[in-house]
Amino acid sequence: MRVAFDIGGTFTDIVILQDNKQVYFAKVLSLIDKVGEDIVSSIAHLNTNEPVDYFVHATTTASNAVIEGKTPRTGLLTTRGFRDVLELMNQKGNRLLDPRWTRLPPLVPRPLRLEVTERVLADGMVAKALDFDSAMQAIFRLRDAAVEAIAVCLINSYVNPVHERALAELVRQVLPNCHLSLSSEVNPEGREYERTSTTVINASLLPVINHYLDRLEKHLNRYSTRLLIMQSNGGTMTSAMARKRPISMVESGPAAGVLAASQYARELAFGDVLSFDMGGTTAKACLILNGRPIEKAYGEIGGNVSAVSMRGTGHALRVPSLDIVEVGAGGGSMVWIDEAGGLRVGPISAGADPGPVCYGRGGTRPTVTDANVALGYMNPVTIADGTLGIDRNAALEAIRTQVAEPLKMSTLAAAYGIIRVANATMTRALRAVSTERGHDIRKMTLIAFGGAGPIHAAALCENVGIKTVLVPPHPGLFSALGLLLAKTRLDYVRTLEELLRDMSRARFDAIFGEMESQAKSDFDRQNIDGSDMRFERIADIRVGFMRDEMTLTLEGPDSTDPDNIAVQFREAHQREFGFPGEGDLYIVNTRLRAVSATSPLSFQGLHEMALQTSTFEKHTRMAYFGAFGEMATPVISRRSIDQPLRGPLIIEEKDTTVIVPPNWTASRERLNGILLRYKE
């Protein structure tokens, strides 16, 4: 038996795959202090003595702690002269062009950023030995400041970490219980600000994640001591590794959904698709080309600008991750009217407690979910397979008094306006991962999931010109299913900063060989079977004195031949920028992905299993569709679709609702997917 659970902004989704091929689904409110109890209760509900092989988990705990500024007191030890790297940042991004941008405070305040005397040169040679007195003085000051975590980031330590390791020993002598992160272990690559920021984020998250996992495993250990955590890159790692590298789980939750969407697209032989995941707090989009999600070697966390694709506004985070764009528009996003009388939605969310007004849990501000209930899109009595009651009259009253009357609109028109504003925000995310990166969004299919994704998908596609929407089975639990599809993955990086023409094939093979040996050792240490491990060799290359590099996956028998790499780079540069990029090529970093070759589950296999079903009676309810007005709309189940049906339709599921507007059709496809097509 395998148990997956994904904590969202409003609901926690649970999927239990039993050894007898039965699949059990559950949704519970995301009350963080009760997550462990709710998982255990779901297992106990099955009345089985079957042992749990492992738990696999996705969570937003790490990202929320940084974004909300709830990380514990953290100190930084750095080389003399580099105290203000976090303050200076990297001067990247059009920050001054956005009037709403306000500078984020440094993750570590200046009094807790302390210098030590030492110097390692760019070639790794020690120019000045670590001064013991300055080091101890700095450590004592951090002790007196009662820090819970310390980040150590010394200049050029990614080439030679000798001083970082010596400094770490001194810290452990003085502060044996303090959490400690070394940049040479967390992010051993060039760029001082990015490396410092990444190390500080990791250090500050260590107490948060260790406390979180302690509390969670206290409950789960009754059934299994093996807990896997979803990483930002779409692979899993053990909880022991997560306790050391919490930065790897910053985009844990969104990555699981993208992983499931890419697997589903591959199995159905779809080409280029966009994954669209709308939950209770945010909406996420990611580009998937030929069944493979786009990745990035870096990212940011935090920031508060209006342009989703703007860089340089948050805290730099150098960790491999799926290239997901996220906006603050979810089912729980609260509605408000700004000083100019404009209707606004989000980014603040009502979450699970108190939640939307219609939940009847004390919420007073209308949300996107309240608008969907008011419009007749969502069940006016109950959702989440009957686990949560809905009060439609309360939603209508909140929208009437707080939105419709101030804007002098009818209640239904105001609710529809809320949906249109939320959709406009989410449209930016779809364009940011496609059109703004040179891809024709009109040729793509949108894979919509999450508790609210299928409600908004068709209207969103009309905004951007997409003609087809694919709604997979169990869309409201899709990210949790993605957890069961995930493979174990570890990533490695080595900075070189050398001319490509000076490199040899033998040297490339030697460098990658060392990283592969390290990966095998790490898999063994985590008691993970590495017999079916697959390695992916990657290189970051730049041309001339350009600051940014391009990342290439090196494939084929001549993958490490420098001449072949140069040709591959010129072709990639031509595709991306329209010219081949003239000048000397520099190999900046070599990267390695170590991935277990087999996946424990497929959608074909899931489709063949005995899934739980609930009784459903076809009926009709009134729903409002903007220019089409209020219409009597059939409410049907997915299983009742045996031929293409024209909208308007409402397809109700245990975990979500699919809205088929009047100018769309719905059909049921292979592997139980619903395909929506736009009819002009």
Question: What is the fold's blueprint, element by element?
Answer:
Layout lengths: L1 E6 L3 E7 L4 E8 L5 H10 L9 E5 L2 H7 L6 E6 L5 H4 L24 E4 L2 E2 L5 E3 L3 H13 L4 E5 L8 H13 L4 E4 H4 L5 H29 L6 E4 L5 E3 H6 L7 H16 L5 E6 L4 E7 L2 E2 L1 E2 L2 E3 L13 E3 L3 E2 L1 E4 L5 E5 L5 E7 L18 H7 L7 E2 L4 E2 L2 H16 L3 H22 L12 E5 L3 H12 L3 E4 L6 H8 L3 E11 L5 H21 L7 E11 L6 E5 L7 H16 L7 E12 L6 H6 L1 E2 L7 E6 L5 E7 L8 E2 L2 E4 L4 E4 L3 E5 L5 E5 L2
List keywords for this structure.
7-stranded mixed sheet; 9-stranded mixed sheet; 38 strands; alpha+beta; 680 residues; Dna Ligase, domain 1; globular; 17 helices; single chain
How would you characterize this protein structure?
The protein is an alpha+beta fold and about 675 residues long. Among the domains are: about 65-210; about 490-595, Dna Ligase, domain 1, CATH 3.30.1490; about 610-680, no CATH class. About 30% of the residues lie in helices and about 25% in strands. It contains 17 helices and 38 strands. The strands form 10 sheets. Strands 13, 14, 15, 20, 25, 26, 34, 37 and 38 form a 9-stranded mixed β-sheet that branches. It has a 7-stranded mixed β-sheet with strand order 12-11-4-1-2-3-31, with helices on both faces. A hairpin with a 4-residue loop joins strand 23 (about 380-385) and strand 24 (about 390).
Short structural description:
This protein has 680 residues and is of the alpha+beta class. Among the domains are: 66-210; 489-596, Dna Ligase, domain 1, CATH 3.30.1490; 611-678, no CATH class.
Structural class: alpha+beta
Q: Which range does the strand content fall in? A: 25-35%
Q: What Rg is obtained from the alpha carbons, in whole angstroms?
A: 26 Å
Number of strands: 38
Outline type: globular
What's the helical proportion of residues? 25-40%
Major sheet, described briefly? 9 strands, mixed
Mean pLDDT: 88
Low-confidence stretches: 305-309
The tally of helices reads 17
Distance between the termini: 47 Å
